[in-house]
Amino acid sequence: MIRHTVVFRLKHPPGSAPEHDFLQAARQLALLPGVERFECLRQISAKNPFTYGLSMEFADAAAYQRYNGHPEHTRFVHERWLPEVADFMEIDYAPLA
């Protein structure tokens, strides 16, 4: 299993229509093949500057790679993520044996 997570801060003002639209578009990633346990989250710790998080799981590395290369994922990254995200940190986890 791989848990793919990303925390991020948007360029849009909090509560704005563009912010809402971005989060709605991000939620569509849950529909892609191989995505399990998708969550769109609000980051609440004062220990970092990020506002939101996405978390999802994949059965294995092959499922994760198919997601990464899926045309809808790459379109989202180029058309929404790159222009609208101010900063982010991505972390991928695998369970310890």
Notable characteristics:
97 residues; alpha+beta; Alpha-Beta Plaits; four-stranded antiparallel sheet; 3 helices; 35% helix; globular
Characterization of this structure:
It is a single chain. By secondary structure, the chain is of the alpha+beta class. It has a single domain, classed as Alpha-Beta Plaits. A four-stranded antiparallel beta sheet has the order 2-3-1-4. The longest helix has 14 residues. The protein is globular and about 40 Å long.
Give the SSE map.
Elements (H helix, E strand, L loop, with lengths): L1 E9 L6 H11 L8 E7 L9 E7 L2 H9 L1 H14 E9 L4
Antiparallel strand pairs: 1-3, 1-4, 2-3
Could you give a quick summary of the protein structure above?
This protein is α+β, with helices and mostly antiparallel strands. 35% of the residues lie in helices and 33% in strands. It has a single domain, classed as Alpha-Beta Plaits (2-Layer Sandwich).
The best one-word shape is globular
CATH class: Alpha Beta
Strand content: 25-35%
- Helices and strands, in order, run as EHEEHHE
